[in-house]
Structure formats: structure tokens, C-alpha cells
Prior knowledge:
The chain has helices at 21-38, 59-62, 81-84, 97-107, 124-131, 158-167, 178-184, 204-210, 223-233, 256-259, 267-270, 276-293, 309-321, and strands at 6-12, 43-50, 72-79, 112-115, 120-122, 139-143, 145-148, 169-173, 201-203, 237-241, 247-250, 261-263, 298-301, 304-306, 341-346. It is of the alpha/beta class and 348 residues long. The strands form 4 sheets. A 6-stranded mixed beta sheet has the order 9-4-1-2-3-15. Strands 5-11-7-8 form a 4-stranded mixed beta sheet. The longest helix is centred in the N-terminal third of the chain and has 18 residues, at 21-38. The chain is globular, with a radius of gyration of 20 Å. The protein starts with 5 loop residues before the first strand and ends with a strand.
Amino acid sequence: MGEPYLSIVIASRNDEHGGNTLRRMQVTLNSLIGQLEKFHIEAELVLVDWNPPVDKPPLRDAIVWPRKLEYCTVRIITVPLAIHLKYGFSEEQPMKVIVAYNVGFRRARGQFILQGTIDTLYSDGLMSYIGLRGLKEDVRYRVTRFEVNRNVVQYNTTKERLDYCENNIIGINAQESAIVQLVLYRGLPKLFTNACGDFQLMSKYYWHLLRAYAESDSISAHVDSLLSYASYVAGVREVVLESPMRLYHIDHGDKFNDRTKRTAPLDEWLTLIPFTSLRRQLTRLHYGLAELIGWEVRSSMYGIPVLDSTKCRRICRDMITGRLSYIFNDEDWGLGNEALEECIVNEH
């Protein structure tokens, strides 16, 4: 198999996380593969199936895969339970999301690698732009994420879905405002880190140079922001693609922010404020002031440590000033020393 122009890496498992997972995944993959074919993009889809549940079919069997593809190859890499159990909090976390993505990044063959997810749709404008084959090796590409009503999964064609997305936007994850940049990102270059885990497009050379996302036993959070700043330190320029280049995220339950608990020194006092709206505003101000003062803010999910955004920004500042390396993983990143099962669903 020759080197494709683009690799799209997606990590998942058949466990219905977030609700209606298989349908969201089917819609995403059908639209994505269809666009790769439509715009004649020599590509591979690398799907990492992490710790497949024993009581459900693996993703290679659970998904209905299109046939007779001319431009896209689908590769499925399986990470078994035995490897999953080697990580901390393996019972609490059925999937090590960041390591799963790194597995795909490590084995991707494309000249450029895009991190994808199981519930995103790409505008035709975005895929057409990629199809022009004008991507630059020293650039990391970002795009605004638009949240769309989950009913989009009821439609059966990519055109119907994209038309629905344009008219049913329920939120926009745009670049942080100048005020937020000034208060929270002081001392840091202005990079687009909002919802950056859903679209990071960069050359294979730099994914490998940086050894991808920082791996740890804690729940993955903000490691996509760390990568953004690590790539900046490594000399990669960020380019934010504008409309009509868009990313649409299909709304679902069990969102990350809803599951995360944050604590800071004055939390106990804030709970005494009787007015909900005022309490929320003061809580936001509290966390901003805590970072300015240097107080510790902790995040957790189900009792598992989560990298808090305040600590993430401190790490980024240390990378920028040279006090900390911008490479976090060792040479075995992405399970580089493991021989993992792989199958090709359809090779063009």
C-alpha cells in the first residue's frame, strides 16, 4: 500500500457511551468516507477499537462499511483487554482515549494526519479544501466547531445532514475572546484551543516528532491544548480555517464538562450564596482569580484525577519559556512496541 495523502484517526469502542453511539458513528463514517471519495482524496481511515466489550460485536462487525471504494482504505486496529488492564484506573475507564488515538497516530501512513471523532461531520467546503492537496508540512490546521441538534442522525444522505446542520446550530465553540486570552492565557501566544480535540490536522512528521498526545493514567483532558502549544514551540504555525470550512459536532448526552468536578479554596463559601445565577458568576470569577493568585485548582471525574485547565496553562507557560520539554512521551508512545491485530475492511 502506498502512502496516502491523508490519514483520519478515530478511536472508539462498541459500548454506547454518550447514547446512540453506533448510529452517530455510522452517520459520521458514511459521510466522511463519501466525501473522501467525492473529492478524490487519497486517504485511509484508521479506526482504533480499544478494549472491545466481550458481550458485543467488535466495530469491524458492528458498522456497515461501504464497498467498492476508489480513494479510501479502512484500517481497523484492535487493542485487547490484556493491554488495557496494564493502565491505572482500568476498571473505572473502559477506554484509554488518548493512548488509543496515539496508537492510530503512530501507525498512520498518511502524509498528513487528522484527528477525527465518532460524532463529527465536515462541511463540503472543508473537505474540498483538503482535496486541493495544498496543506503545508509546518502548519497545524484548526477549524471552528459548531454544535448541532442530535436529530441530524435521522437523515440518510450527507447533503441532507449538512443542510440540517446549517439550520440547527445550538452552539459555537469559537476562538476564545480577547478578554479570556488576556486574563487566563497571559504570557502565552494566542492559539485556538477551544474544542481543539475534535480537529487537529498536522503533518505526520510533526505528529511523530512531538510523539502525539501526553499519555498518563489520569483521564484525558486538555492534552489537545498541550499539543497545540508543544507544536508552537517546535516551530509549527497555527492556521484557523474559516467558513465555509466548518466542523459540526453531533450533540449527545454524558458530556465531559458535565462529568467533571472542580474544586478550589473558596468553594465551600460559594455554596452559601442563595442566588444560583450570582453563584455561577462568582464561581467563574473565583477560578480565574485562583489561577492569577496561584491557588491550586483540582479537577476529577468519578474520583479519577483530571488535568485541570489552570495547571495545563502553567505547563504550557513552562514549555514556552523552556523550563519543560515539549515532548511528554517516551519512544514507546502509542504502544509502539506492541504487535496489534489489524484488519483492512476495504482496500482500494
